Amino acid sequence: MKIGELSARTGVSIRSLRYYDKQGLLTPTRLENGYREYSPFAEQQVRTIQLYLNLGLSTEQIASFLHCVMKNKEAFCKEVVPVYRQKLAEIEEQIALLTAVKSNLEERIRSIVEEDSPNQRLGGE
Hints:
This protein is mainly α and about 120 residues long. The protein has two domains: about 80 residues, Multidrug-efflux Transporter Regulator, Chain: A, Domain 2 (Orthogonal Bundle); about 45 residues. It has a two-stranded antiparallel ribbon with strand order 1-2. A hairpin with a 5-residue loop joins strand 1 and strand 2. The termini are far apart. It holds the Pfam family MerR. This is MerR family transcriptional regulator. One of its GO terms (molecular function) is DNA binding.
């Protein structure tokens, strides 16, 4: 199938499909006119790539194990667990940072509200 048909079947833009090709995630054959030709298997590959992108993984991370998970069950691909652990650590770090930012904002709001409260009680604005 041509790139437009693959795009229509998967809902992934042609630009993204070309990017996946450039990153080595998809390997279409090239016709004499330079057009990309994808196997029917490419649709499943694109859906798998999308699944991993939705988990927050980069195309580089996906490339490190995609070939294995396309041939085997994910559980048989030893390359997946370290990537998942790394991503989980990144997420936990982001959560800690956001929690600190949230706490700082809550404290600033409390401080402003408390500072404004005496003025309201005395009739000032």
